[in-house]
Design a protein that fits this description.
By secondary structure, the protein is mainly beta. The protein folds into 2 domains: 29-61 and 68-183, Immunoglobulin-like; 194-279, Sandwich (Immunoglobulin-like). It has 3 helices and 20 strands. The strands form 4 sheets. Strands 2, 3, 4, 6, 7, 8, 9, 11 and 12 form a 9-stranded mixed β-sheet that branches.
Length: 279
């Protein structure tokens, strides 16, 4: 009987030990997600959007419960984690040519995050030829602009997520003279992307610079006053780069076979525009 009692005691201690190991083993630790935003150029004086909240959702986190209130509020029980709830009003056209703005940073449980959501406010405007217009924003967008992700946050690391808000394709002019905001966004892991830089001459006017793949524009920028440009957030691949001068005196041109490597800048050097012989 005494031996049986000792055996049961040993078994209980062993079981507790395994349980403790399992519990600690299920703790995935934490990493940090930092979210920044950039923009492609647009033919407007300014484009202001108000961002009320930025949230992310972990893979398989309460997927059966994705309900939200009408104002876009959410809780961790819904499977969403808040990166930032500090309201900010951003002029997207100040975020071109490699410039970025920090939207927030948060320590998260390690794992794969499958969605990010930007919750917009209602103070969104576009200024065209000096006149400012309110941007009509569907209420569904105010409750959250969702982007699919495959963001693997690892323990004790910082995952840098870049959101590219394409203002040019996000604003739709309506027949009544109004403007509608239908955001076009993409998200990339900044550490897994590279950039294309260079200088366009002459530089007494701006030139649109577009990174194109398979006939589709991935993203774009516009030259600075000195002709410099930088296209950021490009995933590893081979691109065509198109140069579209705003001056009719110069012709469009392109360069093909431009390889981009993660973590590196691909420098195209100085691009000399050719005069438009059709004029």
């Amino acid at each position: 009987m005494k031996q049986l009692s000792l055996l049961l005691t040993f078994s209980l201690i062993t079981l507790i030990g395994f349980t403790s190991c399992d519990s600690s083993g299920s703790d995935a630790g934490t990493g940090t997600m930092s979210v920044t935003m950039t923009d492609a150029p647009a033919p407007y004086d300014s484009v202001h959007v108000t961002i009320n909240k930025v949230t992310v959702k972990k893979e398989d986190a309460n997927n059966d419960s994705d309900s939200e209130s009408d104002d876009g509020d959410n809780t961790e029980e819904d499977g969403w984690e808040t990166i930032s709830d500090e309201q900010m009003r951003v002029n997207l056209l100040e975020l071109t040519n490699g410039d970025k703005i920090a939207l927030g940073s948060k320590e998260l449980e390690a794992g794969n995050y499958e969605q990010i959501r930007l919750i917009l406010g209602d103070n969104n405007t576009v200024t065209v030829d000096g006149e400012t217009h309110n941007l009509q924003t569907p209420s569904a967008q105010q409750s959250g602009l969702k982007l699919n992700l495959n963001a693997e946050v690892e323990e004790n690391t910082d995952y840098s997520l870049l959101i590219d808000f394409d203002a040019a394709r996000s604003i739709v002019e309506q027949g009544n003279g109004g403007y509608l905001l239908k955001p076009v966004l993409r998200a990339v892991h900044l550490e897994e992307t590279g950039s294309i830089i260079g200088t366009v001459q002459p530089s007494d006017f701006n030139t649109n610079v577009l990174a194109v793949m398979d006939g589709d524009t991935v993203t774009s920028t516009i030259t600075a006053d000195n002709g410099d440009f930088e296209i950021v957030g490009l995933e590893e691949d081979t691109y065509e780069v198109y140069f579209d001068p705003t001056s009719d005196n110069y012709a469009d041109s392109s360069q093909t076979g431009i390889d981009v490597t993660a973590g590196e800048e691909t420098d195209l050097g100085t691009i000399e525009l050719e005069s438009n012989s059709a004029l």
